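Collaborator request log, item 7. Partner lab (contact: R.S.) asked for a structural prediction of Rho guanine nucleotide exchange factor 9 to inform their binding assays.
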Amino acid sequence: MHTLSEQFHVTNMLISGGSIVNAEAVWDHVTMADRELAFKAGDVIKVLDASNKDWWWGQIDEEEGWFPASFVRVEPHPPQPQTKQVFYINPIATPRFQNTTSKLWVNQEDGGAEPAERTSEVQNGHLDPTNDCLCLGSPLQNRDQMRANVINEIMSTERHYIKHLKDICEGYLRQCRKRVDMFNDDQLKVIFGNIEDIYRFQMGFVRDLEKQYNTDDPHLSEIGPCFLEHQDGFWIYSEYCNNHLDACMELSKLMRDGRYQHFFEACRLLQQMIDIAIDGFLLTPVQKICKYPLQLAELLKYTAQEHSDYRYVAAALAVMRNVTQQINERKRRLENIDKIAQWQASVLDWEGDDILDRSSELIYTGELSWIYQPYGRSQQRVFFLFDHQLVLCKKDLIRRDILYYKGRIDMDRYDVRDAIDGRDDDFNVSVKNAFKLCNKDSEEIHIFLAKKPEEKIRWLRAFHEERKMVQEDEKIGFEISEYQKRQAAMTVRKVTKQKGVNRCTPPSYPPPQDPLSAGHYEVTEDLAQGEVFEFSQSKRGQAPFWQNFSRLAPFKK
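Returned to partner:
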């Protein structure tokens, strides 16, 4: 199989060599702009230009337009003696409700006229071969005209997108609510998520865009401030994107019943929607939020620095890139909740609420000496810092790979304070490499002692990161849905059943596996610059699950 980079170069080389390239679609593509090419899985697309690595220019019958290159992957077979070569393509992601075989044909017959034809298309503004990016107009046009083209494209895209959202809400969701014999409220929440909130937000956003749109001179439009004014509203896409995989799974189960296939098709026909399956429509918000940075980057490229909109567009681009980055980070966290639930199942004598009731991320872990004020006696414990809570565990005296639950501390109710080496006034003991957790509402204090100064600094950074994560989650309304919690619990039950784990006997840990991947955090400048933490897998052959789950290793950038 080829990587995306290899696919880009191979296809581009074939077209540049005069070959006629035809690709069979393996994913329904719902368009949101006039210049995009709509197709269904199985449609054959003539690839006219593949110079841009993300979007290709293609043709179906007499219609031309952009389509995402990431929907296909090229894997060439050795050339045949004949004049025709065949290339097979595998989809990057398999469509939910189609099971298609994809092929790409490269025909070297009658290729002489193709290069000249392609050159003409490039000159007409389909692609600028010098900068590897989409261009919407002739390179000979001045910057104002190019900016006008991009503005018009953004406005057209928004209007099409509003139509798709309306079709989902009125064509599908409203009809589903009428059929209480087929759908319950939980199912509809999983399938459609917060699509109605997105529809309402997007209508307000488009209204403001229309006010800023200069019909007579589009290049004078100032749309950057609209993105900045609505930047907090775009966070509602986080919930939808996080829920999308669950929506696909729920739809997949329903589609096994022919009644639901016929029902959704009847909804589509009644609303007079384009011939795309419901999963294609539900994908459009995910596509849309990812497309904003691309559009704004294109707009900034053709906005002169002296233009009144320049600094606003630049700021909007930074904002939307941050939104998509944070949405991806939240998505990663949700994909790892199974491992958190599995970790909890491996801890014996668990009491109280499940970790997932309040937390979604393991931030740091390690062994510390702990003194709780009323007792004043030092105890060795293993601590797991999640968002919102710090869990205390004790190792088994004989089997050190077994953990027992010993309590938790609600981080929302405590402040973290540094402790100076020497005699501590609160505990009347000598401390070194220590820090404290002080209750905000009472005089309750916990003191923790690390073995080394470096470990103390790591813990202080981790606590800072925990508060930062909680604040960001509150800002965007990030939380784990009840459906996702149930799915995680089901996964744990399957694992424990296979491994024979129960609460009465020591758990049989699964073999070492990747811990929560990509979980690294940048630390603040006041706590040693340039150092971040990431989860790393144990290099030893066999280790307890909780060690693989929790081991963190610092590294330099």
